[in-house]
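Lab meeting, item 3. Inverse folding demo.
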């Protein structure tokens, strides 16, 4: 009479798949809570850390199950493979962030001008730590991101300011504070010339109309003073696409004769590492601004 061997189902294989499946709603819930503002960035990272430990545990159970399948002939090969595969897929984005952390310096604040970085206007709405750079940080930024530099545009600040506003809007970055923004109805002559000759030219055109001349000249002088003597500042907030992690950026437009120098600073609101995000934000902003002001850009 032929014997029948009753193969035992591996408990390790069952737990391998079970933990991987449980990790899916757990991670979705963590992302949802952070997106809705129920938890802050530090808390969501702790939840992610626990989720990662769940997935690693699942893989360890899968390896244990594989040993049992090989040595004892236990059942559960399919669920073991499914559990390990699911855990590996869920770990992939975290592994990618680890690669970014290893390939980028430990920085969470980056500026194009390390000696005189742009300052945030509203520190109450900014969760970033507002600090100037020490010598080590300044050298690390310059050495790590040699391509992150400011721009000189051969245009008056009012013209550049308008394009900066458009770029920020197209990027979906929320402007939360600004300073010395020129009026949108600034005289066209002033925007094109950017110096006192524009005022004289406009005054000559308006000479027959005495009443309009005084009002127009006053308006030109007021806008000219803003453009030629004061820096224009934009402060905006960025949220990442999926998790909604927040970063702050400040953009400074400095008049330099008839030209405009644009500097930018980006700061993350979580931990000591930005995973290279701040450099990406700065590069993306200047790429779009260069396209908008094509032919007028000179890198410093």
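The presenter then showed the designed sequence:
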């Amino acid at each position: 009479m032929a014997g029948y061997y009753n193969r035992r189902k591996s408990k390790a294989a069952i737990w391998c798949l079970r933990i991987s499946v449980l990790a899916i709603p757990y991670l979705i819930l963590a992302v949802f809570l952070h997106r809705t503002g129920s938890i802050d960035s530090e808390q969501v990272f702790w939840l992610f850390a626990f989720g990662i430990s769940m997935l690693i545990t699942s893989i360890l159970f899968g390896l244990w199950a594989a040993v049992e399948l090989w040595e004892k002939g236990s059942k559960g090969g399919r669920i073991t493979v499914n559990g390990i595969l699911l855990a590996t897929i869920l770990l992939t984005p975290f592994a990618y962030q680890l690669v970014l952390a290893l390939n980028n310096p430990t920085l969470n604040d980056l500026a194009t001008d390390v000696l005189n970085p742009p300052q945030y206007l509203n520190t109450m709405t900014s969760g970033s730590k507002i600090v100037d750079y020490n010598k080590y940080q300044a050298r690390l930024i310059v050495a790590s991101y040699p391509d992150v530099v400011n721009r000189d545009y051969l245009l008056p600040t009012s013209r550049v300011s308008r394009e900066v506003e458009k770029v920020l809007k197209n990027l979906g970055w929320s402007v939360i504070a600004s300073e010395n923004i020129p009026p949108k109805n600034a005289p066209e002559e002033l925007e094109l010339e950017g110096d006192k000759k524009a005022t004289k030219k406009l005054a000559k055109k308006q000479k027959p109309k005495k009443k309009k001349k005084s009002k127009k000249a006053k308006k030109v002088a007021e806008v000219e003073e803003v453009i030629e003597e004061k820096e224009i500042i934009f402060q905006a907030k960025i949220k990442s696409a999926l998790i909604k992690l927040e970063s702050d950026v400040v953009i400074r437009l400095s008049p330099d004769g008839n030209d405009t120098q644009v500097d930018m600073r980006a700061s993350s609101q979580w931990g000591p590492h930005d995973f290279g995000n701040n450099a990406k934000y700065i590069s993306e902003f200047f790429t779009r601004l260069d396209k908008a002001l094509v032919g007028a850009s000179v890198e410093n």
